[in-house]
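sanity check this record:
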Amino acid sequence: MAEDDPRILTMIRARLHIEGFSILEAGDSQEAWRSLIEEGADAALIDLTLRSETDGWRLIGTVRDDGRFARLPIVVMTGTPGSEVEEKARSLGCAFLAKPFEPDDMIASLRGIMGAALQKIGVTILLAALKIAGTVHLTSEHTRFSDAWEVLMRDERTFIPVTDVTVSMPDGSSPSEVPFLQVKKADILAVYPAEA
């Protein structure tokens, strides 16, 4: 998150913690870029007027020009009115959020842009006593399933979120459907794309 207003920073930080996000904070574009390179990120909230009128745009340009982060989900936050600003943000593949904004709107924008950046992959997951067929959401920068799955398995979460789930016995009998399931990583014996 790149924001230089302490009041807005405090509000954003509190709400993101409530929603379960881990946060990296920066007050200017150089600090934000350094954090992104050193720590990585799943998404970014960037205020356009960090230390100067062009600081946020410069940071977004740097991010978009770097192959590692070209598709990073970004929410542009600004108090600068005008459809030109919103159009420029969208042309750079960013969500737009006008200040002042409600915390719920910020979360909706962040989740929306993150969801749009994910690829939905049908998978079959085998556990010792269950077979789970459903959809996992993987980052789009990985074109091979094995690479994306490896990244997902290495992140700090102990569970894999799966949507549109059918749970059955390993032989496919006794199926039941649930909209969402968290599958414990340690219990996974095998996984393969549903098309396989």
About this structure: Strands lie at 44-47, 74-78, 94-98, 118-126, 131-139, 159-168, 176-184, 190-193. The first strand starts at residue 44 and ends at 47. The helical segments are 6-18, 29-39, 55-65, 83-91, 103-116, 145-154.
